[in-house]
Amino acid sequence: MFAVTMRSLVIWGLVVGAVWAQAEATSPTKDEDAPSSAEVDQASVRKFFERFYEATNDESGNAVLGLMDADSYINEIIAASTKKLNFLQRMMVRRSAKARMASAFRYEFGVWKTYRVTNIKVDGDKATALVRHWDEEGLTDRQVFMLSRHGKSWRFYDIESVSTGLSMLAMAKGFMLQVQDDPAAAEMARASVIVVNAMKEAYDYWEVSSGYLAELEGKRLPPVFRAPRWLIEVSARTQSEDGRGQYNLHLAKKLRATGPNCILADYLSALCLYNLSRHEEAIEAANNYIAAVGPDADTEYIISLAYVALDQPDKAIAACLRGLDDTPSSLDIFIQLATILPEDQVHVIAERLSKIEDAADQFETLANGLSYIDRPKALEALVDAYEKINPNDPNVAYYRAQAKAEQKQYSAAADILKSAIPTIDDEEEREYFVDLYLDCRAEAGQSLDAYNESEDRAYAFNYLADTLIIKEKVDEARQLIERHRSANPDDAAGHFFEGSLLRVDKKTEQAIESYLKAQSLFPNEELADRLFYELLDCWLELDKPLEAYRRSKQKDVALVELCERLDADEQWDKRIEVIKLHESQFGPSHETTELLLDTLSKQGKHAKVVPIVQSARIRLAAELDTKNEDDDDYYDVYYGVSHQLFEHHFRSLLKLQRFHEAMALAKESTEETDDPYYEVIVNASIGDVDACEAAVETCFNFHQYRPDGLLRGEDELKAILQTKPFEKIWLRFFQPRVLSLTAMTERPIDLTTDRFVEAVSKAFDDTQFKVYTDGKVGKSNENFVEIHGDRAYSVNYKSHSFFVLWENGKYAFHPKYVDALTHDQNKNAVKQHQAWLAVDMDVWPGRLATVESHQLLARLLRQLTHDRNTLALMETETAGVQAFSPEVDTQLQSEHPRHMISQMEVPDVQVDAPEVADE
Fold first, then answer.
1. In this structure, what DSSP letter does residue 574 have?
2. CB–CB of 263/128 below 8 Å?
3. Nearest to residue 297, comparing CAs of 90, 19, 72, 1?
4. How many CA atoms lie within 13 A of 756 on its CB side?
5. What radius of gyration, in Å, describes the C-alpha atoms of the chain?
6. How many CA atoms lie within 13 A of 186 on its CB side?
7. pTM of the prediction?
8. Which residue stretches of 627-688 are H helix?
9. Of all helices (H) and strands (E), which one includes residue 561?
């Protein structure tokens, strides 16, 4: 759904980035008769798009540029800047525009192969039209064109992406802040670029995207980029392991509250609601999205899944059919339809294949999908339909045989394949057919016959022997092996599979003899590799790891494999014996030293570790002195081996409570890397709270650690930081960040702008706040309120950013959530509330909410709801709830309101939500 959108963002970046090189548009096209009615207006807009798409064939891009109101576009961007341009500057802007805009438009619009215009709205001299377009690969995107009437014709002056809510003009205005003299505005311009970069990666590479978002810490964003920033997070979270939470739905509500432009909020709401098993609501939100944008396969897929969950298969089938009407080749919907169709209706599968333009290209994908879900009747119907389209395709035989095999008609399947195999020239494709043929003969109990009839008996034997042993058809496997060995006594494969059969019979020593015989017969590379691991397994079954090492022909590989397996069984002494045996033959190495130190550490023999590692570090230093920094392995040795030795040395000193020496090592590391990570650990271990806090702060602020990163694998450090002396460090840096705190009230909320600003001022010590409307932006060093609509505001106070959203109506909880609450006060509050108000901190991924942030959020929430009779508080990310009381109110005003939040009841709600396929 989003693939073309992300590409479009790149192109729009070219357009808006070339703003200062814009020129006047070419003269308008030939005028048409002036429209005299709504019907004529609609027709004239459609006529405009006929001309527009014809113009996209012009590789120069000038024809498209000629249909744009470039003057209005450039003038609005210039007006958005507080730095006024003189006449000469404006003239230079216009002169340099044409070539760069034309190039960008040619690149963007040139990919569109087909299009559909819907939802045309004309209001005087302005019009909007929603356009959906497809590229040659079938990827689709939607954009809203903003048009203005010029004489008797139309021109476009802006294009807005449905998937992001961003328009070219809005993006350009955000980027244009960089030409201002105000450093804060320049910072917002850079932040805008970061959001666009994050958006390009959000749907496929959330880790990359979240890295971009982490760069936004402390940076202000223009209002137009704030909704896309939330959109990035909720879109990525709904497609990741974090995508099942109530918080995603809350983010979607924030998107919707920012205004009508973010149409995608309805789609994301539908996906969130489905993931929360709120299926009726998911269907309603999905239908709202379809009503806004027209037919949409992805959304119909969610609707069909929801109807299946509601046990309404007829409606689910209808949704699938609508989805296939929109995108005939949609694999997700095709498989969904095949899954829920009754067997007497599988003919629909055949009918739908005939509507796919590139059926030959799509057939194999669809057939594999049907094989995966084990619907053989649907697969047969698909094959029958495809055979009429392309009767000579060998895949017809393959998938017909597959359908027969799934119905356990193995002999019939084998007969089909046997006839088809001689007709296939491609060696790789032929192998697929042969494998399925042999599978079917094995399932039919005809392995010996298949072996005897095979042109390539060696291949047939290997495949059939493996298959029969895996399926535990021991008698048949034994007959096949005896037949092959009698005819090929010196074939390594015969002895190998005899050994495998002996292992099934638990005759390990005899299996070793067969494996060694196979090894002596020069097996091929694949078989030799299998023999190596089978022999290791056998020796270990006999508890003879040293014999396994001695008899191995690959000593280095055997050392590592044996150490890993002995490690898993915690056989430390035998692990050391193997290491010593290897060193006796090849001498000590970095690898054996690391294995030895690792073993001693796991045994808890830290007093033995220290002298060994000290000697090893001296040897390493001497070795590095003999190397040139340009040597290929210099940095591998330096950074890899050096770090391993340091870790063993440092950890053992800690275990031995030799803290002075451990601190010396930690400072050595800090001096080299400027990273006091190890000083954090030592200071925590010796109880130096202030030094520990300073080191943690450096880790977070300078090195941009995340809480999970600093504590990953540091269970002992985590336990220390959670004790009373270190409470302030834990609360400041490691407590789960408060993203959103919601008050559920008994009375409706009626906050005008004046009342809202007054409440905010009182919450923050009667501070005066500037008020910005109509998309105007406050400076980062100001205290201000920005208005986003009737129920949404942003608040900036001392570099802390908050977003406030409220609704008069019940917060939408799943019924199972309410039922799972065990405290009656909490349950009654959730049932009785009539309105809710949420205050969110503007916290980016990777940024930590400070103690002060928690305090300010609590004060703001309390002031905004104090006269509405608050019934309960909820932390939105975890959906933890706490009935309101004087005690809770006291905690809300305390130095650490996070304590109150940590006491909230988070019910254990088990809601079945089948996985949604990747979009």
1. H
2. no
3. 1
4. 25
5. 35
6. 6
7. 0.72
8. 634-635, 642-655, 659-673, 677-686
9. helix 555-568
794 by Cβ neighbours in 10 Å (0-12 / 13-18 / 19+) ranks as buried
The rounded Cα 368 to chain-centroid distance in angstroms is: 25
Task: Give whole-number Cα distances, 657 to 617, 660, 721, 793, in Å.
Answer: 21, 9, 18, 54
> How would you classify residue 133: left for phi > 0, otherwise alpha for psi between -120 and 50, otherwise beta?
beta
Q: What is the pLDDT of residues 236-281, one digit of tens each?
A: 666 554 445 677 777 777 777 766 667 788 888 888 888 888 899 8
Strands 792-797 and 880-883: unpaired
Using DSSP's 3-state secondary structure scheme, residue 167 falls into strand
If one counts every other C-beta atom within 10 angstroms of the C-beta of residue 488, the result is 14
Look at residue 867 and give its three-state secondary structure.
Answer: coil
Geometric angle at alpha carbon 818, from 816 and 824, rounded to 5°:
140
CA angle 729, 733, 737 (to 5 degrees): 135
Which of 93-97, 256-260, 437-441, 460-464 comes out lowest in average pLDDT? 93-97
- Order of strands, sheet of 800-808, starting from the edge strand that comes earlier in the sequence: 770-772, 784-787, 792-797, 800-808, 835-841, 740-745, 870-875, 880-883
Q: Are 234 and 199 in contact (CB under 8 A)?
A: no
CA-based max dimension of the chain: 98
Smallest CA-to-CA distance from 650 within 642, 129, 180 is with 642
CA 540 to chain centre: 41
Instruction: Report which residue type is found at 628.
Output: N
**Three-class DSSP category at 153:** strand
* Residues shown for the chain: 919
Contact indicator for 497, 469 with CB cutoff of 8 Å: yes
Q: How far apart are CA 743 and CA 904, in angstroms?
A: 13
H-assigned helices in 203-278: 206-214, 226-238, 246-257, 264-275
The answer to whether 864 touches 837, Cβ cutoff 8 Å, is yes
Contact 444, 477 (CB under 8 A): no
| CA atoms of 756 and 172, how far apart (whole Å) | 31
> What residue ranges in 809-845 does DSSP mark as E strands?
835-841
CA distance readout (Å), 19 to 65, 145, 146, 168, 183: 14, 19, 18, 11, 20
**Order of strands, sheet of 153-161, starting from the edge strand that comes earlier in the sequence:** 114-123, 126-134, 140-150, 153-161
The angle subtended at Cα 874 by Cα 869 and Cα 878, nearest 5°, is 175
Question: Could you give the CA distance from residue 798 to residue 801 in angstroms, rounded to a whole number?
Answer: 8
In angstroms, the CA 496 to CA 519 distance is 8
Tokens 């932040």, located at residue: 191
Q: How confident is the model at residue 813, as a pLDDT?
A: 77
Of the spans 294-298, 364-368, 504-508, which averages the highest pLDDT? 504-508
Interatomic CA distance for residues 818 and 909, integer angstroms: 9
Q: In the structure encoding, which two tokens stand for residue 747, read together?
A: 């009375």
Please name which of 911, 910, 916, 858 lies closest in space to residue 882, comparing C-alpha atoms: 858
Q: pLDDT by residue (tens digit) across 232-246?
A: 777 666 655 444 567
**Beta-carbon count within 10 A of 235 CB:** 30
Question: Is the CB of residue 836 less than 8 Å from the CB of residue 740?
Answer: no
Give phi and psi for 74, each to the nearest 5. Answer: -70, -40
* Burial tier of 519 (Cβ tally within 10 Å: 0-12, 13-18, 19+): buried
Query: Would you give the distance in Å from CA 641 to the centre of its chain?
Result: 34
d(CA 501, CA 344): 45
Alpha carbon distance 239, 248 (integer Å): 11
d(CA 194, CA 343): 52
φ/ψ of 138, rounded to 5, equals: 90, 0
CA end-to-end span of the chain: 6
For 883, which DSSP code?
Answer: E
CB atoms near residue 529 (< 10 Å): 13
